């Protein structure tokens, strides 16, 4: 599978061609291009808690949802806390207004209800979308380095198997734009967490620098976790876009030191024809 760029009425976003080939699902990874926000939030900011004008954010959601083909009234958000909790959601979790308070904390959402639009946010951390076209179920995962170490994407695969009867070999997975190995320079705490959690298989995603610091490939580590959970390698698409390298296309928390908007990744089952 591959990640493909789309442009619908000036809204630039990414999709997984395998999802589109399978049919029955609407999805997209946003960029910062195509919205109405101003200044540091220019232009398609989808984060409500970043300091942007709420009216601009609401209009950005209307624009983005129209481009990817989901109903903004059926979006489901979560409070992301860099953990490994995956929450099962239904139509009852859909937003009562885009700025409504979310009571629960989770870094993954999943559903088998058509129309419910699962949403996760990112600005260096990885957005990961999962689709089971056989059992008709989807999941959206937010994986920073802590979530990667704790195995949230593995939890999502396991929970889809347990709740929906998903066979991991049927799953399609898309790892969206996030900070890449080229820019994710860390102290020893990050590689130590990865090797403690994943053992020697994590080592090929970790580079030791002459300075004593490390570069870590979060995309590679999450692809490794997906394969270890039973997802076929040919069913995994990985965006090569690095949010830190492409400030004109994406927000990077590291690059902006937190003064930024947010990307979003959204996925929803469509009604069967």
Structure characterization notes:
The strands form three sheets. The protein has a six-stranded mixed beta sheet with strand order 1-2-3-15-7-4. It has a six-stranded mixed beta sheet with strand order 5-6-9-8-10-14. 24% of the residues lie in helices and 25% in strands. The protein is globular, with a radius of gyration of 17 Å. It has seven helices and 15 strands. Strand 12 (206-208) and strand 13 (214-216) form a beta hairpin. The protein starts with a strand and ends with a strand. It is α+β, with helices and mostly antiparallel strands. It has a single domain (3-179, 218-269), classed as CNF1/YfiH-like putative cysteine hydrolases. The mean pLDDT is 96. The chain has helices spanning 17-22, 54-68, 145-150, 152-164, 189-198, 218-228, 253-256; strands at residues 3-8, 11-16, 25-30, 75-76, 86-88, 108-111, 117-122, 126-132, 137-143, 172-175, 185-186, 206-208, 214-216, 236-238, 263-269.
Can you describe this structure in just a few lines?
With 273 residues, the protein is of the alpha+beta class. Helix content is 24%, strand content 25%. It is built from seven helices and 15 strands.
| Number of H- or I-type helical stretches | 7
Structural class: alpha+beta
Q: What is the H level of CATH, i.e. the homologous superfamily? A: CNF1/YfiH-like putative cysteine hydrolases
CA-based shape: globular
**CATH topology-level name:** CNF1/YfiH-like putative cysteine hydrolases
Average predicted local confidence, pLDDT = 96
């Amino acid at each position: 599978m591959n990640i493909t760029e789309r442009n619908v009425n000036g809204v630039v976003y990414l999709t997984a061609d395998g999802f589109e080939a399978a049919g029955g699902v609407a999805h997209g990874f946003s960029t910062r291009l195509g919205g109405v926000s101003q200044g540091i939030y220019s232009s398609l900011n989808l984060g409500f808690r970043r300091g942007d004008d709420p009216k601009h954010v609401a209009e950005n959601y209307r624009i983005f949802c129209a481009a990817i083909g989901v109903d903004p009234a059926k979006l489901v958000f979560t409070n992301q806390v860099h953990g490994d909790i995956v929450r099962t959601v239904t139509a009852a979790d859909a937003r009562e207004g885009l700025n409504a308070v979310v009571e629960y904390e989770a870094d993954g959402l999943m559903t088998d209800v058509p129309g419910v639009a699962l949403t996760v946010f990112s600005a260096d951390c990885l957005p990961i979308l999962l689709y089971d076209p056989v059992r008709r179920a989807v999941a959206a995962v937010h994986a920073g380095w802590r979530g990667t170490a704790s195995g949230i994407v593995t939890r999502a695969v396991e929970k889809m198997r347990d709740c929906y009867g998903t066979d991991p070999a049927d799953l399609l997975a898309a790892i969206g734009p996030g900070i890449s190995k080229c820019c994710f320079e860390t102290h020893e705490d990050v590689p130590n967490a990865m090797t403690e959690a994943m053992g020697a298989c994590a080592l090929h995603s970790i580079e030791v620098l002459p300075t004593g610091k490390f570069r870590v490939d979060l995309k590679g580590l999450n692809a490794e976790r997906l394969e270890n959970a039973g997802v076929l390698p040919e069913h995994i698409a990985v965006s090569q876009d690095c949010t830190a390298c492409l400030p004109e296309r994406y927000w990077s928390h590291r690059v902006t030191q937190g003064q930024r908007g947010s990307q979003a990744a959204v996925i929803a089952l469509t009604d069967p024809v």
